[in-house]
Amino acid sequence: MGDYFERIIDVEVAADDAGALAEQTVDWMVSRGWLLRETSRDTMYSLQVDEGYRPGPEWSRITQEWGADWMPGPVAVIVGRYPHFAGQGAIEPSAADCPHCRATTVIIDYPQRWEADKAVWQPFADAIDAWRDTGAGAVTCVSCGTASPVTDWEWADEFALGALAFDFWGWPPLTDEFVAELGARLGHRIGHHTGKF
C-alpha cells in the first residue's frame, strides 16, 4: 500500500527564474483543462509543499488509459533548489558519472553494500548542500581530478537536482507526448521519475 507520484524536474532552470516559470506552466496547464486553480492537500505528500493543484476536467488527455472512474490527486509545484529522489525514500544514487571524463564513481556498491559509502558520498553531499544554499557547488572527480558543478554530474537511479519540479500524485502514467510537450514548454532538460510515499 502507499501513495504513488510521477515527477518531472527542470534540471536547468535558475532558481531566480523558477517561480515565474512555474506560474507560466500552471497557467498553460489550466488553460488546457488539465489542472484547476483550486488547490487541495488530500492525498498529497510532497515534502516541500503542503498542497497542490486539483486535476481539471481534461486531465485524462495527458495520461494513459486507466479506467473511467479513476480520480487523480493534486499536482504539487515545487520551487527551490532540491535533490529529487525516485523510488521510495531519500536513498542516495548508486553512482554518478563525471561530466568531464565520463568515469563512474560508485556510491552504493550493490549487491555488496545496500548503503552509500560515506567517504565516497560525502563530497557529493557537501556540494549538494552548497548548491542548495548558494546555487553553486562542485565535486572533484577522483579519476581525472577535474572539479565540475554538482548539477553537471549524471546520476544513476533517476536522482535529479533541480529548482522546479511537478509531482503528479495518484495520476495514471503520464503519456510520453505530454512529458515531451511539458519539457519543450519549460525549454530545458528535464528529469522524469516515479516514486512512492
Structural notes for this entry:
With 197 residues, this protein is α+β, with helices and mostly antiparallel strands. It has two domains: 4-87 and 159-196, no CATH class; 92-155, no CATH class. 23% of the residues lie in helices and 30% in strands. It is built from three helices and twelve strands, in the order E-H-E-E-E-E-E-E-H-E-E-E-E-H-E. The chain has helices at 15-31, 118-134, 176-186; strands at residues 4-10, 35-40, 52-55, 75-84, 87-88, 95-97, 104-106, 138-140, 147-149, 154-155, 160-169, 190-196. A five-stranded mixed β-sheet has the order 4-11-1-12-5. Strands 7-6-10 form a three-stranded antiparallel β-sheet, with no helix packed on it. A two-stranded antiparallel ribbon has the order 2-3. The radius of gyration is 18 Å and the shape is globular. The protein starts with a strand and ends with a strand. The mean pLDDT is 94.
Entry summary:
With 197 residues, the protein is an alpha+beta fold. It folds into 2 domains: 122 residues, no CATH class; 64 residues, no CATH class. The chain has 3 helices and 12 strands; from the N terminus they run βαββββββαββββαβ.
Low-confidence stretches: none
Q: How are the strands ordered across the major sheet?
A: 4-11-1-12-5
Structural class: alpha+beta
Helix content: 10-25%
- Mass-distribution shape: globular
Number of domains: 2
The biggest beta sheet reads: 5 strands, mixed
In total, the number of strands is 12
> How confident is the prediction overall: mean pLDDT?
94
Order of helices and strands: EHEEEEEEHEEEEHE
Helix run count = 3
Distance between the termini: 9 Å
Which range does the strand content fall in?
25-35%
Q: Calculate Rg over CA atoms.
A: 18 Å
